[in-house]
Amino acid sequence: MITYDRKSWKINHQRIFVLSAAIHYFRLPRAEWNEVLEKAKAGGCNTVETYIPWNFHEMNEGEWDFSGDKDLAHFLQLCAEKNLYVIARPGPYICAEWDFGGFPWWLSTKEGIKYRSADPVFLHYVDQYFDQVIPMIREYQLTNNGTVIMVQVENEFQAYGKPDKKYMEYLRDGMHARGIEVPLVTCYGAVEGAVEFLNFWSHSGHAAKVLDERFYDQPKGVMEFWIGWFEQWGGNKADQKTPHQLEYECFQLLSNGFTVINYYMYFGGTNFDHWAGRTVGEQTFITTSYDYDAALNEYLQPTEKYSVLSRFHSFVKWLEPLLTESDQLNVNMTLPSNVTANRIVSPDGEILFIKNGRNERVQALLTYEGQSIPYTVEAHSILPVVRNVNIGELFTIKMLTAYTTGFNTEEAVIYHETGQRSSFMVKLHKEATIVCPLPNRYQFLGNNTYHFHLFHGNELQSIQLEFKDGTVYMIQIADKQTLDHEAAHHKMKVHSESLKWETADENLDFLQGNVKVTRKPLDFSSFGQFSGYLGYESEFYFGQTGVKTIVFPRIEDPVTVHYNGKFIGKLDKLGADSLEVPVIKGINKLTCLVQNMGRYNYSQAMGEPKGISEAPALNGKHFSLLGEWQVEGTGRKHHLSQIPKIEGRIAFLRSFTNTDYNRAMLVGEGVSRVKVNGKPVKIVMENQTAWSRECAVFGVADLSDTLMNGENVLDLDVQNVSSIRRFDLYLFHEHEQIFDWKMKSCAQLDEKKDWTIFSKESTKTVFPRWYRSHFSWSHDDGSVIKVRFNNMSKGCFWVNGQCLGRYWNIGPQEDYKIPASILRERNELIIFDEEGFLPDKVTIHSF
Questions:
Q1: Which residues does the UniProt record annotate as the domain Beta-galactosidase galactose-binding (predicted)?
Q2: N or C: which end of the chain has fewer CB atoms below 10 A?
């Protein structure tokens, strides 16, 4: 039923162009699945792609959940009912900016486990996962009861490092053994027996060349066509890929022979609860919103990109037979400077893709059957010129130098930029009367051929072909702006109800509740907790009063620090950090609160210990090692923000003085590229290293084994590295580490709270605090509901008992989705704020 050749996929022997919408069922409530699928289909997609996150379905070992919002089978059933094909991507690793790349948190508690490898321990758990999920996919294959046409093996595996052939073959064979009979696919993970796709946004010509060289007998596909991007806390708004650029890159794909496109993301959605992950870098935590600047926004509203893709899909559907059985041929025409062209030809016609690389519009001529035909291409745009395409028994399009949504029906639309002109040359197969009012002009060329000179203005125009047999064909002439109806701009209204608040302090009393006593602080997995908050507390004796530096030698999340009952600051640097504290003579109490901000979802750094995992130390020292570097043999000093180009193997050196410390941690970009006193550094965790020698990836290294008293020399390999943003050294004495800790889960919604009426006077101190309010809602308020945490700090929130995610007022996210499906006439909003900032500016918006 499903086959392929080098040109396209075939279903029941019919060639298809796969237009796939990436929609993750786990990033929106089940109640919204129907709507998002309907809108994807209405927008011209014929396929839906989804990852399947292992950890979403097995949050605790051996406890499987495929119900409610996790009902994968229901999602696949809905796709089948709507005749949408499915690309299933079960991993076991998925990346997806999702916590731990889809792996369950408890895997990191398995001693010696090696993720994404043929390690028997890892494969044991993969088999258990496959036993659960692959049979579901099997039942919904196109060959059975559904519409699954492809299943992906692993994900971007070759980007991980050296390929592990045995591992990939094990996964492939495991899928076959469990009944997968539709074609298997990979992306950057080629394994024999699977079709290889690539992931990219631009440079599709290069991608096509790679695929042709290595996989010539397979159709060309892009598994993740990145039409937007994700956002991270403290980063920029990710709206850099414009609708105009999207249209350009779509036509690039066609011109280079791609016949499988999966838009990543078509709908991005939301990282509800604590599912957002952490990508490569020091502090690249993913926001709660996964809007992705996609075709459908986080609230399922169409964007300008939806309009662009709808037009593009109509064009593709019209020319599907041509596009799926074409060859690329030479372009025999003279082109202006900085203008290039690709040409594809099939028995059904041809398309000339004219690409303008200039910063200004190009107007030129092309010659066809003795006619000089003008064409216009906007700056950095592609114009698809259609030639020799039959429109049934009515006429043949000899030449079209404008865009079109296709001629599949009895009415077509031809469009271009506002104010521009184009040509439409047709040969009629039957006698017809032409109704073409000004300003559309045309001329008769003989042999039933007509050349229409079109103008694309603000007013819709038309050409009507009235054939003698009574058939009428209408062609609308429009400008692009008229077609691109942006998503309706509803006026956002602030919820009219004034929110009244109650408040309660978080219980940081470590004398009651489920308290665990440990020698040193435990990371989240070692403690036995997926995510949320952990509290750490230790008491120690000090002989004198003063200000001391405490070094935290291993942290992987921001830490809120309280000392002797008072807030004294936050640790925002990850890997390791330090803080000055006012030590008193006698017993001192150190209390820390940590929110797990997401595990690495990419790279060999996966499996890092979340939270605090090493004992802090008193009387520590911190150095920034960004400055004072020298090229061996020269006296000039350099800063790592501007690394000089070094030819050959000349050393790049810096020294520091150690005064009797016996422990040292180096944190920053490129730590795996350094030697200390001639010896390679010891990486804290084997899989926490920088995962490529070709870039300065963030990492943590233990220098203790190489540390000497007196002068120590660092030798940094800066080949292929132009700048490094962080290179910090932390020194401390092992005997001054603070041991004997109490730990407990914090910020638990179901824990009893002493609610009181909120007042600004009672909440002046900085302290982790709860807030509760109620608001009303009706369907008349609209289906888009947002909450904005103005003037608050960092935390998480619940509506009607459901955790809807983390918030953090460092941007770029400001608004947080409240799904209409969880709302009632009267609703409860609960907020946990790490620093107890006031909620009086919190607003709820709806439209």
A1: 768-826
A2: N
Phi, psi of 48 (to 5 degrees): -125, 135
834 catalytic per annotation:
no
Instruction: Tell me the CATH class for 325-483.
Output: mainly beta
Q: What 3-state class would DSSP assign to 229? A: coil
Report in angstroms the alpha-carbon separations of 529 from 21, 108, 534, 654: 34, 11, 9, 41
Q: DSSP letter at 520?
A: S
| Stated pTM of the model | 0.96
Characterize the bridge pairing of strands 220-226 and 194-200: parallel
Domain boundaries, the chain: 2-303, 325-483, 493-504+750-846, 507-620+739-745, 623-732
Q: Which two tokens stand for residue 77?
A: 């059933």
Burial of 658 (0-12, 13-18, 19+ CB in 10 A): middle
Burial 680-697 (b: 16+ CB within 10 A, else e): ebebbbebbbbbeeeebb
Sequence length of the chain is 847
- Whether 247 shows a pLDDT value over 60: the answer reads yes
Measured distance CA(302)–CA(266) in Å, rounded: 10
Tokens 């998480």 -> residue: 796
Are 682 and 676 spatial neighbours (Cβ–Cβ below 8 Å)?
no
Q: Are strands 586-595 and 533-542 parallel, antiparallel or unpaired?
A: antiparallel
Region 763-769: what's the mean pLDDT?
94
Structure tokens at 150: 């492809």
Cα distance between residue 98 and residue 146, in whole Å: 27
Q: What is the DSSP letter of 620?
A: -
**Which fold, 507-620+739-745?**
Jelly Rolls (2.60.120)
Instruction: Give me the residues paired with residue 829 across strands.
Output: 773, 799
Residues 834/560, Cβ–Cβ less than 8 Å: yes
Q: What is the pLDDT of residues 565-585, one digit of tens each?
A: 999 999 999 999 999 999 999
* Active-site option among 32, 49, 154, 156: 156
Q: CA of 53: how far to CAs of 92, 149, 170, 611, in Å?
A: 8, 19, 19, 23
Count Cβ neighbours within 10 Å for each residue of 426-440 and write b for 16 or more, e otherwise.
bebeeebeeebeeeb
Is residue 459 annotated as a catalytic residue, yes or no?
no
Task: Spot the catalytic one: 49, 224, 231, 608.
Answer: 224
Rounded to whole angstroms, the Cα distance separating 18 from 358 reads 31
pLDDT per residue over 154-209, tens digit each? 999 987 666 689 999 999 999 999 999 999 999 999 999 999 999 999 999 999 99
Residue 689 has a pLDDT of 38
Q: How far is 696 from 651, CA to CA, in rounded Å?
A: 17
CATH number at 493-504+750-846: 2.60.120.260
Instruction: Give 364-421 pLDDT, tens digit per residue.
Output: 999 877 778 999 999 999 999 999 999 999 999 999 999 999 998 889 999 999 999 9
Contacts for 489 with CB less than 8 Å, ≥ 6 apart: none
For residue 282, give the nearest of 716, 715, 690 by alpha carbon. Answer: 690
Residues 520-553, buried b or exposed e (16+ Cβ, 10 A)? bbbbbbbbebbbbbbbbbbebeeeeeeebbbbbb
* Contacts within 8 Å (CB) and 24+ apart, 645-651: 646/718, 646/719, 651/715
842, 787 Cβ separation under 8 angstroms = yes
Average of per-residue pLDDT across 710-732: 94
Percent of the chain with pLDDT over 90: 87
The band of 280, judged by pLDDT with boundaries at 50, 70 and 90, is confident
CATH of the domain spanning 623-732, picked from 2.40.50, 3.40.50, 2.60.120, 1.25.40: 2.60.120
Q: Are strands 710-716 and 679-680 parallel, antiparallel or unpaired?
A: unpaired
Peptide bond into 708 cis (omega under 30): no
